[in-house]
Design a protein that fits this description.
- The chain is of the alpha+beta class and 293 residues long.
- Helix content is 32%, strand content 34%.
- The protein has helices at residues 16-27, 39-48, 61-73, 91-96, 102-111, 135-150, 152-166, 219-231, and strands at 2-8, 31-35, 52-59, 80-85, 113-117, 120-122, 125-127, 130-133, 170-174, 177-188, 192-194, 197-198, 208-215, 237-242, 245-248, 254-257, 260-264, 267-271, 276-280.
- α1 (16-27) links the parallel β1 (2-8) and β2 (31-35).
- α2 (39-48) runs parallel beside α3.
């Protein structure tokens, strides 16, 4: 059995993954490399991979998400997933302690350990960071263009402020309960949302996830919420959910998850039938070893 199948997006972050790939050819002699033509190929190759210990995504958020979805759909339940990140907003890596330095990331692939990650789904499609309703879709579309030029933090901040000033509000239904005048809402299991924004989450069990929303707030109130989110302070309203949750609206409410637009409501959120076997750095203490196997 070969250890690694590395699926690389050569255009990620201005071609940075292509340059990293040339380095990795020397470091990962036990791996096989495929330069991807498109995102759809990333999911397909990960889904069809056989005879590997792990499939590794080399690219930005889009590549990471596509390969991870393919790994979850692979018939090999023991298949591991690794990340060599070359994008502009490494929230997934930060959350799980995966280094973005190439040599350090390769060391994790070679000598790290497996952590099983519960994965949320939106209409059956897996997402690995957060799902945003309304404002998030507009922010993501602009931020994806600006981050390569302005960096992660500033490339996210400007679209957020622009949407706050627009002052759009939404009425949504959560399992039939109507929540009116919502400025923003998102679903997540991890505190990092995007570009330095963080929500204060309570400890979540493996079968739990959080719904955060802000309603009945002015534009100035939204700016205060953005400030608190950048500081990771409690703000807005938060509910801990289990099982399947349906989000709907009589009006058009755009949907975004993992940094890309995905149509509009309605959407049903739940858990993927299996967990992602993620390669992470070895634990240094018992308190940091949650979800370790």
């Amino acid at each position: 059995m070969k250890r690694f199948l590395v699926l690389a997006n050569p255009s990620s972050h201005g071609g940075r993954s292509g340059r990293i790939l040339s380095l990795l050819r020397e470091l990962l002699s036990e791996g096989e490399f495929v330069v991807l033509k498109n995102i759809e190929e990333a999911s397909r190759l990960a889904r069809e991979a056989t005879g590997y210990e792990a499939v590794v995504a080399c690219g930005g958020d889009g590549t990471v998400n596509a390969v991870a979805r393919g790994v979850l759909a692979n018939r090999d339940n023991a298949l591991k997933f690794g990340v060599l990140y070359t994008g502009t907003s490494p929230d997934f890596c930060r959350e799980h302690g995966i280094p973005t330095d190439a040599e350090e990331a390769v060391a994790v692939l070679r000598a790290g350990e497996v952590r099983e990650i519960p994965v949320l789904t939106a209409n059956g499609d897996s997402f690995f960071c957060s799902m945003n309703l309304g404002m998030g879709a507009m922010v993501a579309a602009t931020a994806n263009r600006l981050r390569p030029l302005l960096g992660d933090a500033l490339g996210t901040l400007w679209p957020v402020l622009r949407e706050v000033l627009h002052g759009r509000r939404y009425d949504v239904q959560v399992n039939g309960e109507k929540i009116c005048n919502v400025a923003h809402a998102f679903v997540t299991r991890m505190p990092r949302i995007a570009g330095g924004l963080k929500v204060a989450l309570p400890p979540l069990a493996d079968d739990e996830y959080a719904l955060w929303f802000a309603r009945d707030v002015s534009r100035f109130g939204c700016l205060r919420i953005v400030w608190n989110l950048y500081r990771g302070n409690p703000c807005g309203e938060l509910r801990v959910l289990r099982g399947k949750t349906t989000f709907a609206s009589v009006n058009h409410v755009a949907l975004e998850y993992d940094g890309d637009p995905h149509g509009a409501l309605p959407v049903a959120v739940g858990f993927a039938p299996r967990r992602l076997r993620l390669l992470v750095p070895k634990c240094k203490g018992e308190s940091s070893c949650a979800n370790k196997i």
